[in-house]
Specification:
Shape: elongated
Number of helices: 16
Radius of gyration: 28 Å
Strand content: 15-25%
CATH superfamily of the largest domain: Metallo-dependent phosphatases
Number of domains: 3
Largest sheet: 7 strands, mixed
CATH class of the largest domain: Alpha Beta
């Protein structure tokens, strides 16, 4: 399978140097239309990963802060819906979204916290400093005010991603929800037709403007890894996406501890996507425990449309197209960067990776932990059909069985669903030609109810029918000849 992924990040939707959504989509389409003329050519994307920071955010005390935060999310949502409609046939499941640190509501964080002055007693002061740096501390330090804050309202603090969650649910038309509990904040996006899966992770556990380090809730991360190992994903290319980068300068603290990558590698994840640092990169991280040759390739996207003051010096806005070949197990990330200086009217062209001195970077994909058993897809399809039958969802069962209808193992499920549905035309179309006596009786009944003369003639000529000694087949054949051929 050869396909590509649009990887964008850090939309930072706000009012400063704002790019109109329609033009932003137009600019991407104009660039996509150039892909076939590039050297090397670029495959148009089959899906998209948006690795966090949908909005810029609102500071506490901003007049009508809630209204402004909702406005920014409405702008981001409008862009994402337009992205799905224009490039992915309106299929919103083709777009994977997850939160970033700018999606954390500053107002909810400060509203959940109590200000604590620095104690004058040296021992108490030392105790507070020790508490500040303890695991999962509820204490925060404000450099702006030179004082401590303590999280006092856990429920409100836990709701600091509520605006993102509401946008998430609306975007996916209530087919997906973003859980309120941190230990459940991950999503699995399966693309079986591509043999590909993405685990969307939340790297904002215990993250807020006063505690900038990224982190995953341990339960969310391990549950996501466990889910990726489930049998139905055997042999697929596994990916994970999150927001924060994994390294920073000596004065930085807003990044992840990279040791979590070992858990993903062990779960079979071969590809990682993130944003946050506003810098496009591609590099490998290898398994460090024992002799295993496994690795994960990490792809970082710059910001798509943050305002100029949020750009790194010398690093323009950009996005990535990541091409994947699961036959040869190779990948190529193309960087597309803004090539003009009108920040509200971007134009895109080839970017530049310093590591390859080119607009693209080639890498080798680590193959899945196991190969896919030949009959696994058939069994999964039959299991899905059986669940629909158990729920008396006859039409849904037939939709699932369509791709395997000619396999012997699928025929009993097919015959039952058709018999229960009572759709003569669909029965004749899906079950023809009958392979067993019960199937012949079912199709014969459908021909009696709504078949054509040509279908009646073909039915009675079938060896299964014409030479049958079964009383039911003989009876249905006689009635067809009398009513359809007489």
């Amino acid at each position: 399978m050869h396909f590509s992924i649009l990887h964008i990040s850090d939309l930072h939707r706000d009012l400063s140097d704002e790019i109109n959504n329609k033009w932003l989509l137009d600019s991407l389409e104009n660039d996509f239309n150039q892909f076939g003329k590039q050297t090397p050519q670029i495959i148009r994307p089959s899906l998209c990963i948006v690795s966090g920071d949908l909005i810029y955010g609102v500071k506490p005390g901003t007049p009508d802060g809630t209204k402004e935060q909702n406005r920014q999310y409405a702008q981001a949502e409008e862009f994402l819906v337009g992205l799905a409609d224009r490039f992915f046939d309106g299929k919103r499941e083709r777009i994977v979204i997850l939160p970033g640190n700018h999606d954390v509501s500053y107002e909810e964080v400060m509203g959940s916290s109590l200000k604590i002055d620095i104690p004058s007693d040296p021992d108490k002061k030392a105790q507070m400093v020790a508490e500040l740096f303890s695991p999962n501390s509820r204490l925060r330090w404000s450099w702006r005010e030179l004082c401590f804050y303590r999280i006092a309202d856990e429920a409100r603090y836990g709701s600091r991603l509520q605006y993102f969650a509401a946008t998430y649910e609306r975007f996916y038309q209530h087919q997906r929800t973003f859980p309120s509990r941190a230990e459940e904040q991950y999503g699995i996006f399966d693309f079986p037709e591509l043999g590909f899966c993405v685990a969307a992770l939340n790297s904002c556990f215990n993250n807020d403007p006063l505690r900038r380090a990224g982190a995953f809730h341990p339960t969310a991360l391990t549950d996501a890894c466990r889910t990726l190992r489930e049998t139905q994903r055997a042999g697929w290319l596994m990916a994970a996406a999150w927001h924060h980068n994994m390294a920073g300068g000596p004065s930085s603290d807003d990044y992840l501890d990279s040791q979590f990558l070992q858990l993903l590698i062990d779960a079979g994840v071969s590809l990682g996507f993130h944003g946050h640092q506003h810098l496009p990169e591609c590099f490998d991280e290898r398994y460090r425990i024992g002799p295993s040759p496994r690795k994960i390739t990490i792809v970082s996207a710059s910001t798509l449309c943050a305002e100029p003051r949020n750009l790194k010096p010398g690093v323009p806005r950009s996005y990535n197209i990541v091409e994947l070949d699961t036959k040869e197990w190779t990948g190529r990330v193309h960087q597309r960067q803004m090539v003009n200086m009108l920040f509200n009217l971007p134009v895109w062209g080839p970017g530049h990776f310093t590591s390859s001195n080119n607009s693209y970077f080639d890498f080798k994909l680590c193959e899945p932990l196991s190969t896919r058993p030949p009959q696994l897809d058939v069994q999964i399809t039959l299991d899905r059909a059986d669940k629909h039958l158990g729920a008396r969802q006859w039409s849904n069962a037939l939709d699932v069985l369509e791709e395997v209808k000619d396999l012997p193992a699928a025929r009993p499920f097919l015959a039952r669903a058709l018999a229960e549905l009572g759709d003569s035309r669909r029965t004749i179309t899906m079950l023809w030609p009958p392979l067993t006596i019960p199937e012949a009786v079912t199709i014969g009944g459908a021909i009696l109810d709504g078949g054509t003369r040509e279908e009646a003639e073909a039915f009675v000529r079938l060896p299964l029918v014409s030479s049958s000694t079964d009383a039911s087949v003989q009876d249905i054949s006689r009635r067809i000849q009398e009513r359809r051929l007489g």
